[in-house]
């Protein structure tokens, strides 16, 4: 059920079925990108390893499955000073949707 601002909540599911972190976004991909930024970043996008992300939409039995990867990149010249010299970038690729039988 979407909130008034249109955002939905997605729970990160581990392989064993435990649910840990909650990410919000207007689309499942937006929440998956937030989850992917928590992956241990590689020094570059080419060197990054892909990790499976399983996000269950709260209030439903849908589990959105993504491959996610993260990497470090130098920040832009016009970036605020508090951001630092490096930022973590992430990307995801949707693999499909599963429905839970619980």
Would you kindly provide a written description of the structure presented here, covering whatever features stand out?
The chain has 102 residues and is mainly beta. The protein has one domain (8-99). The chain is 9% helix and 46% strand. The protein contains one helix and five strands. It has one helix at 28-36; strands at residues 8-13, 19-25, 51-57, 62-74, 86-99. A five-stranded antiparallel sheet has the order 2-1-3-4-5, with helices on one face. The longest helix has 9 residues, at 28-36. The chain is globular, with a radius of gyration of 15 Å. The relative contact order is 0.22.
Care to give the gist of this entry?
The protein is mainly β. It is 9% helix and 46% strand.
Taken from the alpha-carbon principal axes, the silhouette is globular
What is the terminal-to-terminal distance? 19 Å
Please state the CA-atom Rg, rounded to the nearest Å. Answer: 15 Å
Number of helices: 1
Structure classification: mainly beta
Write down the overall mean pLDDT. Answer: 92
Strand arrangement across the biggest beta sheet? 2-1-3-4-5
Assembly status:
single chain
- Uncertain spans, ≥5 residues at pLDDT below 50? none
Beta percentage is: over 45%
Query: What is the total number of structural domains?
Result: 1
Largest sheet: 5 strands, antiparallel
Q: Using DSSP, what is the number of strands?
A: 5
Helical residue percent?
A: under 10%
Helix and strand layout, with pairings?
Layout: E1 8-13, E2 19-25, H1 28-36, E3 51-57, E4 62-74, E5 86-99
Antiparallel strand pairs: 1-2, 1-3, 3-4, 4-5
